[in-house]
Every structure is written in C-alpha cells, then in structure tokens.
Specification:
about 375 residues; alpha/beta; Aminopeptidase; 5-stranded mixed β-sheet; 10 helices; globular; binds zinc ion
C-alpha cells in the first residue's frame, strides 16, 4: 500500500502537468455524512465517508480565497474521477446542503484543469479539527474518511484531564438503552431470495420482536425504523448518534444472500482497527494515542457484543434449524457500524438464497427464535461490561 504522502505528491504532479488518462476511469460510487452526537463530550462531531471504484487517492488543493475570520477550509481533489449515477449526484447534493453549527461540506464535479471531484470542508477552526484516513470496504471499494474532531475535547484529552465520554463513562446511567436497526426498508428491499422473500421483511419482523423482548427487560429501545419505510444510512446514524447519551449499543439486523445456494448459517460483523490506515499525519502523538485508546475500547466492546449475539443466535435457533452453521464473527466496514459512535454489531441471521433457511426465515416462530437469540446476546454483553 502506498503511503499517503506518496499519493499526495503523485496526484499533485498530475494537477500541475495536466498529464493523465484522457477520461476518468475512477468513480465516486457513494458518499455519506454522519453527524455526530450533539453533546459536548463527543470526540467525533461528524464524519464524511467517500467510496471510490478504484482509488481514493487525493491531493490537498491550495486555497485561493480566504474564508471568513471564523472559518477555515480544507479542500481535497480526487483526480481522474467521475460521479457514477444520478443517485450519487443526488446524495452529494444533499450532503452539500447539510448545515451544522461547526462544519459544512461541498462536493463538486470539476472538468478543469483535469476531470475530478473536489471536496471542500468549511469549518470553525476553534471548534473543529479535520483529519482523514483510508480503508477498504466490505465490497472492496476504496474509501476515504474525513473526521471532524471536537477540538476542545482534544485539548482536554492531551492535557490529561479526566473527560467523561458519553454517559456510560460519566456514570450517570439509570437505565440501559439499545438502538435496534432493522436493515433496508421501503423501496430498498435488500436481498430477495427463495420464494421472493425480501430481506427488509425479515429484518423488520425480527427487529420488532427484539424491541419487545428488550422492553420487557426494562431496556429503552430506539428503532431506526418501525415500519416498511426507506431510511438512508446517514439518517439512521445521525439518529443513533443523537440518542448516544441514552443508549449503550447498536445492533443492526440483516439477512444474507449468496450465489452458492448451499451457503447457510449465521455471521456477525463488527469493526476492528486493522481495517483502517492509521492517522499517519497526526503531528500530535499524544492525541493519536488518546484516539487509539478510545477506538480500541469501542472496538473491543463491539467484538464482545458481536460474539455474544453470534453465540446466542446460534444456540436459540439450533433446535429449529439443525443445518445452521457458525460462520463466526468477522471484521468488516459496514456503513451503519462506521457511522455509529457506540459499540455496534451487524448480524446476518441466515441466507435468503438457501431454500431451507428461507422457508424458516419467513415463519414467525423462527423470527421469534432469532429475536430471542439477539436479545440474550445483548443481555449477556451488558452483564459482561457492567
Ligand atoms: Zn442487508
């Protein structure tokens, strides 16, 4: 993997000389703006994520016009890059219209001096520090993530002040809270499997059953959707982050699809540090260490949660589905996990493409067994971290 510095120099040479392929082959395939919790003790106040077909290499553009006294700008240029499809154009337009008190993002397709995508971040330098890193997504697209750090909190972390992060650390909790994310919905059906069974139906039914079980346990439940409606991932994560000080974790429910009709079983995903390239340019070692420590805590808890969900879903469904198999906990970047600032896991409850599992997945009793398993997993996790 080439280093970021190498990338910047190479891309800058392109811009200066205008040398390059005649038309763009790289494509911006998707974009997300995750707004962070609206609370002072959150380190990440927002996160922009851009996915590319081939390359996420960029150059930083010199700024021509000085922004106002209370604003700074940082401008990224992705050379030889086009925008793929009208949906992505709509998405970047929507992102460019989001206004928060501390930052805004402008994404534009430009033709000169070479074709590319320009991303300009305008932010309050008193409040925000902008950092970026690369990762490879689950579909192996190249991605770049621009993080808006809370500068005041950064200063406190560096000086070693004891800063309570989210409510759990502040020890003010009275009641547990769980965010249940039923995957897909509305015109986004998710996968469609054997017998035309749709992923969105399975996810919603299992999620609503799970919500009921958790509420019986005295846990506050936040649903990202409670009916058959399309909710963009950005909106789901903004919602999740807006209730982050009342919630302890997020579980996202999905069902799998594979070309191989024999594929079956349960798998659960969570994030892990090795998926991301480190903040190589972070000049402040102490801050980098603080960020590492906070992320390690979140990843460690996410892994615990994922493992408990995986184990308990398997044990609750084994009687009904003797053919199920343990596809284990895996580490991968799923967008809902990336945009959430709580410990989070994504469970794929079975394969819609497998006839045997699809026939089970459409029954109420199997959906209930799945919900029982996820609920038991969450309870086991909460006991473990208590
Ligand atoms: Zn899905």
């Amino acid at each position: 993997m080439i280093t970021k510095r190498g990338v910047v120099i190479l891309a800058y040479a392109w811009v200066c000389t205008g040398i390059g392929r005649p038309s763009a082959e790289n494509a911006l395939k998707d974009a997300f703006l995750h707004q962070g919790p609206k609370i002072e003790n959150s380190l990440e106040l927002g996160k922009l994520v851009l996915y590319f077909s081939d390359s996420a290499d960029f150059t930083l553009l010199p700024l021509t016009e000085a922004p106002s006294a209370h604003k700074s700008q940082k401008s990224y240029f992705f050379p030889q890059t086009k925008v793929l499809g009208s949906e992505v154009l709509k998405t970047i337009d929507r992102i460019s219209r989001v206004r928060t008190a501390w930052y805004s993002v402008q994404i534009a397709v430009v033709q000169k001096p070479i074709e590319g995508v320009r991303v300009t971040i305008t932010y309050d330098p008193e409040k925000i520090e902008v950092a970026d890193q690369f990762f490879d997504s689950i579909q192996l697209n190249k991605a770049v993530e621009v993080i808006f750090y809370n500068k005041e909190l950064k200063k406190k972390l560096i000086t070693g002040a004891q800063v309570p992060l989210l409510r759990r650390a502040a020890n003010e909790k009275k009641k547990y809270g769980v965010i249940v994310d039923c995957g897909h919905g509305g015109k986004d059906t998710g996968a469609v499997g054997y017998g035309q069974l749709q992923e969105k139906e399975v996810a919603l039914s299992v999620g609503l059953r799970l919500a009921q079980l958790l509420e019986h346990q005295g846990i506050t439940v936040f649903l990202t959707r409670d009916r058959d409606t399309a909710v963009p991932i950005d909106i789901r994560t903004s919602f999740a982050n807006s209730v982050a000080d009342e919630a302890d974790l997020l579980v996202s429910i999905h069902a799998n699809m594979a070309k191989n009709e024999a594929a079956r079983g349960v798998e659960t995903f969570c994030l892990e540090r090795s998926l991301f390239f480190p903040l190589a340019d972070e000049p402040d070692k102490k801050f980098a260490q603080c960020v590492s420590r906070l992320l390690d805590d979140r990843y460690m808890n996410s892994k615990l949660l994922a493992q408990q969900v995986q184990n308990n879903v398997l044990s609750c469904t084994q009687k009904k589905n003797g053919a199920t198999c343990d596809r284990q906990v895996k580490q991968a970047v799923a967008q809902i996990l990336l945009g959430t600032q709580l410990p989070a896991a994504l469970v794929e409850v079975g394969f819609l493409s497998n006839k045997h599992e699809a026939l089970l997945l459409r029954t109420k009793s199997y959906q209930q067994a799945l919900a029982n398993g996820i609920c038991n997993g969450i309870l086991a996790y909460l006991r473990e971290i208590a």
